[in-house]
Write a structure and sequence with these properties.
The complex is a heterodimer of chains A (129) and B (344). By secondary structure, chain A is mainly alpha-helical. Chain A has one domain (7-128). In chain A, 78% of the residues lie in helices and 0% in strands. Chain A contains 4 helices and no strands. The longest helix of chain A is centred in the middle third of the chain and has 39 residues, at 28-66. Chain B is of the alpha+beta class. The model of chain B has no long low-confidence stretch (mean pLDDT 92). The chains are: A mainly alpha (129), B alpha+beta (344). The A-B interface holds A 28-29, 31-33, 36-37, 39-40, 43, 83, 86-87, 89-90, 93-94, 96, 98-99, 107-108, 111-112, 114-116, 118-119, 121-123, 126-127, 129 and B 34-38, 187-191, 193-194, 196-197, 201, 254, 257, 259, 319-321, 323-324, 327-331, 333-334, 337, 341.
Chain lengths: 129, 344
C-alpha cells in the first residue's frame, strides 16, 4: 500500500495552495485559470469520494431499464461495461423506443438519476437552481 | 505559433509594425498590451496605439482578437471582420472593425476599436454600480436583437447557413448539431439522445419560418455594458443565417443566468425582451418556436461543452478551462431533462 497522504489528502494540499496563495497573488487570465484549476481539484476530490457508490447505483439503474446483467467485479471492467450498456441505451432512445409509454418513464427516471450523480461531482450547486 | 508572440512586449512590437504598414504612418507605438480574461478558444488582448502621421497624431484604443489553435465552429477571421463592418454600418452597437490582420502575429487576427465597459455577468448581477444597468438591459437586448436581424445580408453570402434548398433552417441546424455531436462525443449521452429525439418530434413547421442573420451567441457575457446599460454586442464568431428565434431563445439558456433567478441572463423575463424586440421593428415573436429553440439552445451549449473538452482531449490545447468545461456538460443535461419532462 501507498503511504499517507492518500490521493484525496494530496489533492487537498494542492487545492489549499491554489485558493490561499496563488489565486490571491495572481491577476487577469492567470488568476482566472488558477480559480478554474482549484475547481478542477474539487471535482476530482468529489469524484474520488462518490465514484464507487455512483458506479454501483448506475449499474443497478441500468439493470432496471435494460434487464439484469452480470456485473463485472474489477473496477476497469465495470467502467467499460457501464459504458457499453449506456451505448445500448443511447441506441434504443435513437430507435424511438423511449418516445412514450412505460419504457420512457423508466428511462427518464434512470437518466435523471445518472445526471444527478454527475452533477454531485461536477457542480452540486446546479442541482439547487 | 512562435513563443515570442505570447510575450506582451514582443506582440506589441509586431502589432506596431503591422499597423504602420497598414496605415502608412510615420511611426506607431503600442502601449498597455494586456491579455483580457475569458475566451476559451480565442485570445483577446487590449492595447493603445499612438499613430504618428507627421502633421497629425492619432490615439486609438484597440482590441486585438487572435485565434488559438483549433476551434470547431468559429467563422474565418476575414468573414467575421466583414460581418462586423456590415453590423457597424447598419447601426448595430457592434465594435468598429479597424484593421484586418495578416500573418505577422502567427495566427489569424483583426483589430477593432475598444469600447470601455464591463462584460462579466456576475458583476452585472451583483454590483451596486450596475443597478441601473440591470433595470435597463432587458428591453435593450430586445431592441439590439431586432437591429441584428435587420442587418442586410448583401456581401455575406459565405456565412454558414441552411444548405441551398433546405426546407427548414431549424431542421438543418438540428442536423448540423447532431452531426457535430456524433463526431465529437467520446462517451454515450442518453440525456442528449432524449433531447435530440424530443427536438425531432417537436420541430416547428417550416411554413412561417423567417430567415435572417443570426448572431449565434447572443447572451450575457457577450454584451458590453456600463452603469447605464448596454454599450455593444461582442463575439460574432458564431454568426450564421437562419431562424432569428434562435437568438431570442439563446439568451434564456440556463447557463447564461449565472446564478440569477430570472430567465433572461438572470436579470429579466422573456416577455420584456419579446415586447422590446417587436417595438423596435422585429417581426412578431412566435413563443412556441422560441421555446423549441430554448431546448435546442441548452442542447447546443452541451454539444459545445463536449467540443471544447475534445480540443483538450485531442491534445490541441492544455487549457485547464477547456478541460473543466467537459464536466459542465451535465449542467445542460439536467436542464434538458427539466424542459422535456415538463412537456411530456
Amino acid at each position: 500500500m501507498h503511504d499517507r497522504p492518500t490521493v484525496d489528502e494530496l489533492l487537498r494540499a494542492v487545492e489549499a495552495l491554489l485558493d490561499e496563495q496563488l489565486v490571491p497573488a495572481l491577476e487577469g487570465a492567470r488568476k482566472y485559470n488558477a480559480r478554474v484549476a482549484s475547481n478542477v481539484i474539487k471535482i476530482a476530490r468529489r469524484e474520488l469520494q462518490h465514484y464507487e457508490r455512483q458506479a454501483d447505483e448506475e449499474w443497478r439503474g441500468l439493470d432496471i431499464v435494460l434487464g439484469a446483467a452480470a456485473r463485472p467485479a474489477a473496477p476497469a471492467a465495470l467502467r467499460e461495461a457501464i459504458r457499453a450498456r449506456n451505448e445500448e441505451l443511447a441506441q434504443r432512445i435513437r430507435d424511438g423506443d423511449a418516445d412514450a409509454g412505460d419504457f420512457r418513464r423508466l428511462v427518464l427516471a434512470h437518466v435523471r438519476d445518472t445526471v444527478h450523480a454527475k452533477l454531485e461531482v461536477a457542480n452540486p450547486g446546479w442541482l439547487e437552481g | 505559433m512562435s513563443e515570442q508572440l505570447r510575450d506582451p512586449d514582443a506582440l506589441g512590437e509586431a502589432l506596431a509594425s503591422f499597423i504602420q504598414r497598414e496605415s502608412g504612418a510615420a511611426s506607431v507605438r503600442i502601449t498597455g498590451m494586456r491579455r483580457l480574461t475569458g475566451g476559451a478558444s480565442r485570445e483577446t488582448w487590449s492595447c493603445d496605439a499612438a499613430i504618428d502621421r507627421g502633421a497629425v497624431a492619432e490615439a486609438l484604443p484597440l482590441i486585438l482578437q487572435r485565434d488559438t489553435r483549433g476551434t470547431l465552429t468559429s467563422l474565418p477571421r476575414a468573414l467575421e471582420f466583414r460581418l462586423l463592418r456590415a453590423a457597424f454600418d447598419a447601426g448595430v452597437p457592434a465594435p468598429e472593425p479597424l484593421f484586418m490582420g495578416d500573418d505577422s502575429l502567427g495566427a489569424p487576427f483583426f483589430l477593432v476599436r475598444r469600447i470601455e465597459g464591463e462584460t462579466l455577468p456576475r458583476r452585472l448581477l451583483r454590483d451596486d454600480e450596475y443597478a441601473g444597468a440591470r433595470a435597463a438591459l432587458t428591453p435593450q437586448l430586445g431592441a439590439i436583437l431586432a437591429a441584428v436581424h435587420a442587418i442586410p445580408l448583401d456581401g455575406l453570402a459565405d456565412l454558414p447557413g441552411p444548405p441551398p434548398g433546405a426546407a427548414s433552417a431549424v431542421a438543418s441546424e438540428l442536423d448540423r448539431y447532431e452531426a457535430v455531436f456524433r463526431g465529437i462525443a467520446v462517451e454515450p449521452h442518453p440525456a442528449f439522445e432524449l433531447a435530440f429525439r424530443w427536438l425531432r418530434l417537436h420541430l416547428p413547421p417550416a411554413a412561417g419560418e423567417r430567415r435572417t442573420l443570426v448572431h449565434g451567441d447572443f447572451r450575457m457575457g457577450n454584451v458590453l455594458f456600463g452603469p447605464e446599460g448596454a454599450r455593444a454586442l461582442l463575439d460574432w464568431e458564431l454568426a450564421h443565417t437562419g431562424d432569428p428565434s434562435e437568438d431570442l431563445a439563446w439568451v434564456s439558456v440556463r447557463s447564461w443566468r449565472f446564478g440569477g433567478d430570472c430567465p433572461v441572463g438572470g436579470i429579466g423575463d422573456r416577455e420584456t425582451v419579446f415586447a422590446a424586440y417587436e417595438a423596435a421593428g422585429g417581426a412578431p415573436v412566435d413563443r412556441a418556436r422560441v421555446h423549441f429553440w430554448e431546448v435546442f439552445g441548452n442542447l447546443r451549449w452541451g454539444v459545445i461543452c463536449l467540443g471544447q473538452a475534445r480540443t483538450y482531449l485531442d491534445g490541441r490545447s492544455n487549457s485547464v478551462e477547456l478541460a473543466s468545461i467537459g464536466r459542465r456538460t451535465a449542467e445542460t443535461e439536467w436542464e434538458l431533462l427539466n424542459l422535456i419532462e415538463a412537456e411530456g
